[in-house]
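User: New here, please read:
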Amino acid sequence: MADSLVKERNQAEIRRSASEASKLRLAAIPGSNLDRYLDPPANTPYPLEYAFHLLGDARGKTVLDLGCGMGENIVPLVLRGAQVTGIDISPDLIAIAQQRLRNANLEATLRSGDAYATGLPDESVDVIFCMALIHHLDLNLVREEMRRILRKGGSIILREPIRFSQTYARLRQFLPAHDDISEYEHPLTRTELVFMTASFRAHGARYFRLPFVPLVSHVFPSNRHASWKASNWILRHWPAAQHYATAIVVRLEKDAA
């Protein structure tokens, strides 16, 4: 990708992130039920919980939260014993993440930076924890940077929105656009997912959230958990339904040799 287009994309993401950060006062940073991320079960219906399950034993490991945003995942990563670095392109979101760590009385290394050029040494990271980031980016550039900084035998925990069904993609066009979506991001297609995972060994891939989940959650909030559980049951018992899933979580391992 030309340098000019990379800069244009980065600037667009910084503007989008600044808009997101402006809606959240530092004094009102939302909390979370951290217990659900400390030892989640393998059969959880929730993709983020499953990502933390795939993380496994993080004690003493060097973990990069790439695209850390407001730092929601950094606190449980630190609590699980990891030595955490968080990088995000938005200084505004990094400021919120720093406040979140101070509120929790925890320590991690946080800085704004480019996912294409993290500035980290070669083969210096045991785990890259990457939640809903690469669908914003040029896949070739970010994949090569991940391979560069990841130690041999290291792993990437990846959670991404996907859209394999063209029918569903066309239906989505008639729904209102989200205010904070940039013009460059889109759910990964099957071809893009194959490209991203091709140079790694994939383990533990699971699909999540059939299209009815957000609809039920919006119309019947009290049934939100039931809708996630129903989606999980369908996806586990009818593999063909994976074509309509809207998220994937997978662990990608770099060869040890």
